[in-house]
Design goal:
The structure holds two protein chains of two kinds.
Chain A: H1 9-35, H2 42-63, H3 71-90, H4 99-119, H5 130-142, E1 157-159, E2 162-164, H6 166-191, E3 194-196, E4 200-202, H7 205-225, H8 228-246, H9 249-269, H10 271-281, H11 285-288, H12 295-306, H13 330-363, H14 367-391, H15 409-431
Antiparallel strand pairs in A: 1-2, 3-4
Helix pairs in contact in A: 1-2, 1-3, 2-3, 2-4, 3-4, 3-13, 3-15, 4-15, 5-6, 5-7, 6-8, 6-14, 6-15, 7-8, 8-9, 8-14, 9-10, 12-13, 13-14, 13-15, 14-15
Chain B: H1 2-29, H2 31-36, H3 42-47, E1 55-57, E2 60-61, E3 63-67, E4 74-78, H4 81-88, E5 91-92, E6 96-97, H5 99-103, H6 105-109, H7 119-125, E7 133-136, H8 140-150, E8 155-160, E9 167-173, H9 186-197, H10 206-209, H11 219-229, E10 245-246, E11 253-254, H12 266-272, H13 275-297, H14 321-328, H15 338-349, E12 353-355, E13 360-364, E14 370-373, E15 378-381, H16 385-400, E16 413-421, E17 432-440, E18 449-455, H17 467-484
Parallel strand pairs in B: 1-7
Antiparallel strand pairs in B: 1-2, 3-4, 5-6, 7-13, 8-9, 8-18, 10-11, 12-15, 13-14, 16-17, 17-18
Helix pairs in contact in B: 8-17, 11-13, 11-16, 12-16, 13-14
Classes of the chains: A mainly alpha, B alpha+beta.
Chain lengths: 453, 491
């Protein structure tokens, strides 16, 4: 009896169409709110976004037919919303238009997504490049040190008119490395080593050493570059993957303890970070000192002004945040103009994206694939938490791009590649024969690499 | 491994919950605190985001709004700013609002719930109603006459319609252009500093906010108290008053500027403003009678609004008999705003009733639909109708044969009272010239206008400062303007 796994490509197409129409509606809404007329570029913008989404859909339909049908629509919707929010903020800064550039980067991102889905036939191929990945990641993180700092952080490479944040791409490379390394050494990590107390079992230094070294290096580089958001992200990613791979809660506890100690040390010694912590503890200190509200205070004002239903697109004053309103603080515009309702919807979209990644990780059977899926989904989850928590005053603010929403080419491209990899992984997960069945049973076309499972 | 994946997923879910809870805190629970923070510019941005409603004089706006395209977008403009400044006040992006701009701010800025036909829907969609308009009771010709009459000299004029309490003119001099304070920028700050440093205090609304010793014009109140209390029954009977009059319990002798005040009749004393007679009348009437009469006219009653807030006029109540005698002739601690003295004149002209003075006739939405209208309201009865009739007689005599001859208008019944108020340490300051009056057309039942004029002219020769000389001609022109334009009042 043949078991047919539903492909759900029709669902994806319908959702993608909706994911294109929503931002187009938002784009028109901004125009109507500001000038009383639909912006002249609405049709072209809609057609362009639609074409991109359709292209991505076709690539998935042809090359990853079993992929999770939610991944692509969520990415399209978030990217489209981001473009609308940036376009809306561009109206306040006529001299500095970011939306066209962002559209170009989004196109490149979708293009790379398509390229990954088409070119990468099996995620297991990536295991071969684990060590190349880690070297590349380190190079990418070190290179910006030789470029001038921008706003206190050395994370950009400027070439011609373009500026690239290579650290963004390093996220994926490190996830690949961590997943590959932990998958290969899982057994050694869990079974060998000495036991400290009753629960904390230390692995042999030979096994854990390389991972810790790499991690320390990357964190060190980031502290040097003062990009603490990314540093936090890498640490979180490392801890989550280590836990998933080994199940050692004790290590997590030790890791968190070390992190807390490190955070305290950096927070009290490094002036940049110390300032951020003080801002978080006393967001209105600058107001009381007579220097006017700082960015965090302005961000909180923006969220508060949104209330439950928001002011409506185009009606808010989130531009008061000033610098970085379109990038790190983009969520404040969403919070003010779409309200708690819109903000919750956006959070849930991210949650859904992460959940699909985790589900893929649960269904997959090869440890590398599992860890990679968990790693990629966790990157999204941690990024959202770090920056959303930062701009809403939940945790100290650290610079980081809201995935898909924020202005920033490197970030958009990176996130599209993450989605492409998740599409590839979920295709593998859903097309593999159901567990417990005979491997010889024919459940679809034979897939390369499947025999190796 | 799937068990650990589930644990990690639970951790991510925890992060999501933390984000949502915190977002709810910021956006809903603590939102008010953030919105109210003075450093949050949103209130100001929203406030100036739309054109402000206008203040109208005889149907024509004396205000306007200018789109600057800046963050605080609409700026106030004023037509004839210095002329109407005591009426409108100013509306500034930096320095807030005053007077009508302040009192009717909710309506003008569009936040008044009365402007929204569907308040709940407005709350939900966060739409703000266009600013409403405020139609004033001021009449342009009267206002102009008063402004021209003062001619830049320090002083104030308040003119009322006695039967309705409508304020026909409200002038303070020197004045300023409130348009200079609208908007933002260095120019506004400079104008503000310059106006505040100006020794002429141009932003002081002398008609409403400045109290002066009323001097002899207060004798209207003292006369009303004496007549109502039955102290004087015959206007022409001689009063038992010496000249000079030694203030009770002291050796201070009070004298007069005019002769013939010894045992003068009330008519003569009022006509020629005998200090001795009225000081003794006040002392004889006693503190209770005098304080009660003053209160009925509006003294010592704080909280009067027109709807701009009016300073409280005072009549001292913890005094000995000598101080009471001085208080009765408008000195010692007796202080009155020009509007209060116009109310005194209006009470005489209006049969003893004090109508609530009001500056706003009606309010409308931006598209002209009525929001509210004010009606004539009696505040208090200041004196009996018979006393009022006798005081009318006395005041008419002042203009026809006494010190107020300069206020006479041919063919019109005019009643008035002059005043020259000494002030300053040892009365060294330049005296204030007062004139309060009313005018009634023949064959009309009610007086058309009551006026109070005060001139504090520091530059003038001391001898020239007298109510009859400086203030009465201004009052005459104001009354003439009021009589020339037909009354619009329907209430």
């Amino acid at each position: 009896m043949e078991v047919r796994v539903p492909r759900r490509r029709g669902t994806e197409l319908a959702l993608t169409v909706a994911a294109v129409l929503l931002p187009v509606y938002g784009y028109c809404d901004v125009g109507l709110a500001r000038n009383g007329s639909v912006p002249p570029g609405a049709a072209g913008y809609g057609a362009g976004l639609g074409l991109l989404a359709l292209l991505a859909h076709l690539a998935v339909r042809l090359r990853a037919p079993y992929a999770d049908p939610l991944l692509l629509p969520i990415a399209v919707l978030l990217n489209g919303l981001g473009l609308v929010l940036i376009y809306r903020l561009d109206l306040e800064t006529p001299g500095d238009r970011a939306a066209p550039t962002q559209l170009v980067w989004s196109t490149i991102g979708v293009g790379l997504c398509v390229a990954v889905v088409v070119a990468l036939r099996d995620h297991r191929l990536l295991r071969r490049y684990a060590y190349l990945s880690v070297v590349a990641a380190l190079v990418l993180m070190i290179v910006p040190i030789f470029f001038p700092a921008v706003n206190g952080a050395r994370i950009w490479i400027r070439a011609g008119g373009l500026s690239i944040q290579p650290g963004e791409f390093a996220k994926i490379l490190l996830a690949v490395f961590f997943a590959s390394y932990l998958a290969a050494n899982r057994a050694a990590l869990t079974t060998t080593g000495r036991t400290l107390w009753r629960f904390v079992q230390l692995p042999t230094g030979r096994v854990l050493g390389p991972v810790v070294t790499i991690w320390l290096l990357s964190v060190g580089v980031l502290v040097l570059e003062r990009d603490l958001g990314t540093s936090l992200l890498f640490f979180g990613l490392f801890v989550i993957l280590l836990y998933v791979a080994t199940g050692r809660a004790g290590w997590i506890a030790v890791g968190l303890l070390l992190a807390a100690a490190g955070a305290y040390a950096v927070g009290s010694l490094e002036p940049h970070v110390h300032g951020r912590v003080q801002d978080w503890l006393h967001p209105f200190a600058s107001i009381e000192a007579g220097r006017g509200p700082n960015q965090l205070a302005q961000s909180l004002f923006a969220f508060a002004a949104g209330g439950v239903l928001g002011t409506g697109l185009g009606h808010g004053d989130s531009i008061l945040i000033g610098f970085a309103a379109k990038s790190d603080f983009i969520l404040a515009t969403a919070g003010e103009e779409l309200g708690l309702t819109g903000l919750t919807a956006i959070f849930l979209l991210y949650a859904l994206l992460v959940e699909r990644g985790y589900r893929t990780g649960l269904v997959l059977r090869d440890p590398f694939g599992q860890l990679l899926a968990i790693g990629l989904a966790s990157i999204v989850a941690l990024q959202v938490f770090v920056i959303a928590g930062g701009v809403t005053g939940l945790i100290p603010l650290t610079g980081m791009a809201m995935p898909f929403l924020a202005q920033g080419g490197s970030s958009v491209v990176t996130n599209w590649i993450i989605v492409a990899l998740l599409i590839r992984l979920s295709d593998s997960a859903r097309s593999q024969p159901p567990a417990g069945e005979c491997a010889g049973q024919d459940a679809g076309p034979p897939r390369p690499g499947e025999r190796a499972a | 491994m799937s068990r650990y994946i589930r644990h990690a997923a639970a951790f991510c879910a925890l992060l999501l919950v933390a984000l949502l809870v915190n977002a709810t805190r910021v956006q809903v629970l603590d939102a008010e605190t953030y919105d109210d923070n003075p450093a949050n510019r949103r209130r100001a941005i929203e406030r100036f985001h739309q054109p402000r409603g206008d203040i109208l004089v005889e149907g024509r706006p004396v205000t306007g709004s200018k789109d600057t395209g800046e963050q605080l977008r609409y700026e106030r403009t004023y037509r004839d700013g210095p002329l109407y400044a005591p009426v409108t006040g100013f509306s500034s992006q930096v320095y807030g609002t005053t007077f009508l701009e302040h009192a009717e701010d909710a309506l003008l800025s569009g936040t008044d719930p009365m402007l929204a036909p569907l308040p709940l829907w407005h709350d939900l969609t966060r739409t703000r109603s266009p600013g409403g308009d405020v139609a004033t009771t001021v009449r342009a010709a009267v206002q102009r006459a008063a402004h021209a009459g003062l001619g830049g000299r320090k002083g104030a004029v308040a003119a009322l319609e006695p039967g309705t309490g409508r304020i026909l003119a409200l002038v303070s001099s020197p004045s300023y252009d409130p348009g200079r304070l609208a908007g933002t920028g260095a120019g506004v700050t400079r104008a503000w500093e310059r106006l505040n440093a100006d020794p002429g205090r141009p932003m002081l609304n002398r008609a409403l906010r400045q109290t002066y010793p009323p001097g002899s014009t207060f004798k209207v109140v003292t006369a009303a108290a004496a007549l109502d209390a039955g102290l004087v029954t015959d206007l022409d009977a001689p009063t038992d008053s010496p000249d000079p009059y030694t203030l009770p319990g002291t050796a201070t002798r009070l004298s007069n500027e005019v002769s013939g005040c010894e045992d003068a009749s009330l008519r003569y004393a009022f006509q020629w403003s005998c200090n001795t007679v009225f000081a003794k009348l006040g002392a004889d009437a006693g503190l209770g009678t005098m304080a009660a009469a003053a209160r009925r006219f509006g003294f010592n009653t704080p909280g009067l609004t027109v709807p701009s807030a009016v300073a409280t006029s005072t009549f001292a109540t913890s005094v000995d008999r000598a101080q009471l005698a001085l208080s009765a002739i408008g000195q010692y601690d007796t202080r009155a705003t020009p509007l209060q003295m116009a109310m005194v004149a209006a009470a005489v002209a209006g049969g003893g009733y004090v109508k609530a003075p009001r500056l706003v006739d009606r309010t409308t939405t931006g598209s002209g639909d009525a929001v509210g209208a004010t009606a004539a309201r009696t505040l208090r009865q200041a004196m009996g109708p018979r006393t009022a009739a006798r005081l009318r007689e006395l005041m008419t005599d002042v203009v026809e044969e006494g010190t107020g001859g300069n206020a006479a208008i041919p063919g019109v019944t005019v009643g008035g009272k002059t005043g020259t108020a000494q002030h300053g340490f040892g009365n060294a300051g330049t005296p204030y010239a007062w004139f309060v009056s009313w005018a009634q057309r023949p064959r009309e039942l009610e007086a058309a206008v009551a006026v109070a004029v005060v001139v504090e002219d520091a530059a003038a020769d001391r001898a020239d400062i007298s109510g009859g000389g400086s203030a009465a001609p201004i009052a005459r022109e104001v009354m003439r303007a009021a009589l020339a334009t037909p009354s619009r009042s329907g209430d």
